[in-house]
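Supplementary Note 2. Why include the ligand at all?

Several targets in our set were suspected to adopt different conformations when bound, so apo predictions alone were not considered sufficient. For every target with a known small-molecule partner we therefore ran a joint prediction. The input for flavin-adenine dinucleotide is given below.
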Amino acid sequence: MAEKWRNWARQQTCTPARVERPANEEQLSDAVARAVRDGLRVRPVGSGHSFTAACLTDGVMVDQTGMQRVLDVDTASGLVTVEAGIKLHRLTAELHGHGLALENQGDIDTQSLAGALATATHGTGERFRNLSANVIGCRLVTATGEVLTIDEASAPDAWRAARVSLGALGVISHYTLRCVPAFRIHRIDEVRPAAAVLADLDRLVAAHDHFELLALPHTDKVLTYSSQRTDRPAAPPGRLTAWWNDDALPNAGLGAACRLGRLLPGAVPGIARAVAGVLGRYEQLDDSHRVYAHRRRVRFTEMEYAIPRAHAAEALERVRALIVDRRLPVLFPIELRFTAPDDAFLSTAHGRDTAYVAVHQVAGAEYEAFFRGVEAIMDEYEGRPHWGKRHFQTAATLAPRYPGWQDFQAVRARLDPEGTFTNDYVARVLGPAPAGRS
Ligand SMILES: Cc1cc2nc3c(=O)[nH]c(=O)nc-3n(C[C@H](O)[C@H](O)[C@H](O)COP(=O)(O)OP(=O)(O)OC[C@H]3O[C@@H](n4cnc5c(N)ncnc54)[C@H](O)[C@@H]3O)c2cc1C
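The joint prediction is reproduced in token form.
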């Protein structure tokens, strides 16, 4: 019987002709070759945490849940080879066992490695690049079922393309990553006046290894996460404190506020101020992978834009004003993060110091007017949307924002001329398949 698939946010669904679950690279290659023989297109899927239609297909969906092994670890060099389907929480736990860690992480770890890399998933920290920048090489199964080994020395263009590929070049079976010695993070969360923090933003970002700001809508406050890397021994918070700050407030508390806000949209500014009032200072000192990752139980949808770092404070102020001026019933904070530039052709941080501005709306609530308003602001800064989060751009509007656009397309035309790995989303944002199949 046909299996129905849906993403984490439960807003993207499809019924693939079949779902393949390879247990190793050979089975993966056979599955792709079989799909092509049957005239079906192929879509790799990770954990389904993208908000866009990136994973949807009526052809063959390739689920790599059975490909999660760590294949090789060189603790001296930090080079680690893994199967592409490995979940980030499993990868970081195994790395920790070898005294290693990922250089940086985003704020959850339930994604697959391949899915996170394919959309340029990032964390925060002006000295750190997004996760895909630490890919040394990979193995890619193409539409012929052939397996290509791709690294900077042997195939520099394919390597810059495959690091952030949206699954449009083929299915990646293995990655080799550069990891770093395990480290701890000391993080302090506190609520502060928005004006003071924004006036001091550059210094705060430079002064911390990882700095993140959450602007609390309908208030003049922001919640800041300020983190330093440290060798000090771990001192995790007490269980009750951790539960209250990591689980009760961001999950049950936010969920209840959102339910109330949907019943009484006019009361949202008051609810938002009440939510801001219960947030307090919270401190963590623990292994990096434990501090980075959060549990997210309230389903939501999200848009996130990468803009030149210099515009961060101004862009954030404009989004805050948009919410107030249009009286938008928004309860989720506006998130501001920072990364260093990198050189993957489709990296949202390609070639520029980047600030990421993210907005969210609880699942089921109207989001389009809000997100279109935010997108219009981000367009003025040559914003590049997160490939896994909602946006309304097309290949025509995106191409001028990526200096490596044509280089990516040349690799795509060479590796997937027939568009075996193109679905509707890929056709919209990257253009139709090179040989004209849309
Ligand atoms: C609660 C939540 C928190 C998030 N936090 C962050 C964050 O902090 N920072 C951030 O940048 N993003 C964040 N995201 C976005 C998320 O990291 C990306 O959408 C990511 O792509 C999801 O990974 P996934 O494994 O679920 O991939 P999926 O959504 O399943 O797939 C994403 C893309 O990867 C492709 N793909 C999957 N496997 C392969 C493969 N083997 N070879 C080639 N292509 C492949 C798919 O075809 C698709 O195009 C968050 C999302 C959610 C829901």
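The longest strand covers residues 184-193. The two ends are 27 Å apart (CA to CA). Comparable summaries for the other entries are listed in the accompanying table.
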